[in-house]
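Contributing new records

If you add data, match the layout below exactly. Sequence lines come first and carry their own label; structure lines follow with theirs. Keep one chain per record. Anything else will be rejected by the validation script.
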Amino acid sequence: MVAGHLRNRNGYWHLVLSYVDENGVKRTPSKTTRLPIKNNKRKAEEMLQAWRAEMNDEIQEKVMARKTGNAYGGGIRFTKYLADWLKMMKPSVEATTYAAYEMTIMHKIIPYFDKTHPNLPLREVTPKHIQDYYTYELEVNGISPNTVIRRHANIRKALQYAYKTDLIKTNPADKVQRPKKIPFESIPYNGEELEQLFKAVKGTDLELGVILAAFYGLRRSEAVGLRWDAIDFDRKVITIRHTVTQARVDGKFTEIAKDRTKTKSSHRSLPLVPPFEALLMELKQKQAENRKLCKRSYCEDYSDYVYVNAMGKRIKPAYLTQAFPVFLEQHGMRHIRFHDLRHSCATLLYSNGVALKDIQEWLGHSDIGTTSNIYTHLDYNSKINSANKILDYFPQ
């Protein structure tokens, strides 16, 4: 890990790094920013962070190149290389991202190549090897084209690093034909279905999650991660800034809580409407009663979270995904995914004339194109209204 700090030298900011290089030698390089001390600290800090990241990547590249090139004499097996690359990536990516890499590479890609092409050298991997793997997954295992595309991204990224470090002459993944992506189309709940759902979940452990997803359009991680300090009862504002996700890392499921949303735009403020404020006050009172009733058995670890069960334990993200479809089936309601409640929220807003830009901000999308591509095709009634407006001009 590369550390660093700023130093004042002759009235200018200097950057100083501290790290151990690929040979185990401690290094402390420095350089000037050419920025005067006054009013430039933030810019200097940004330059420091950029240099730290650049040097960290450079060290990792050299370590990986030495490990794969020197240790294996250039003859490293493809699957061994993938496993080494995965280990190298772990400290530089989010835990949830690493979990996705690990699941795909260790449990899908490596087992296939170990079985069908044991001891295949990295430098002998061809586009056909990769293409055959995609065909196998599509035709034998029946996975979707979209899943194959995600796995292709993993393979290509790993091989691109091998190309960058001169372990291979070209990236064979660049010559592979990816399957055509299938656009996902959900059929969200309409207003009547949402009203029925709200009545059905009232008083259950699903109630808060359903309301946060269907009315406020929150992601699962944002709903579970809602904390009391994010709710300003005086200003009537809810601030979405904390998330809780669940991932399998190194074979163990773990919950990851962080003060950072999916994207910068996901950090947003929403109005605290009276009905939801009343529900929150009920939950707050109920938590106090449960704490008093359960005494020492009550879990205090999550007292700052809104979404906890009767024993004070935070609701797990997986609970919403797993319990929601079961609840719908038990109540004879049409099956949708929990995430489709977010789609339902957006579609309802759109069908009631809310502008796409406003929906983008409500949902926390970083790009309005995402909002448009996902939701505008869902409201068929708006298209009917458009057709009716010009129907009088239709040739008779």
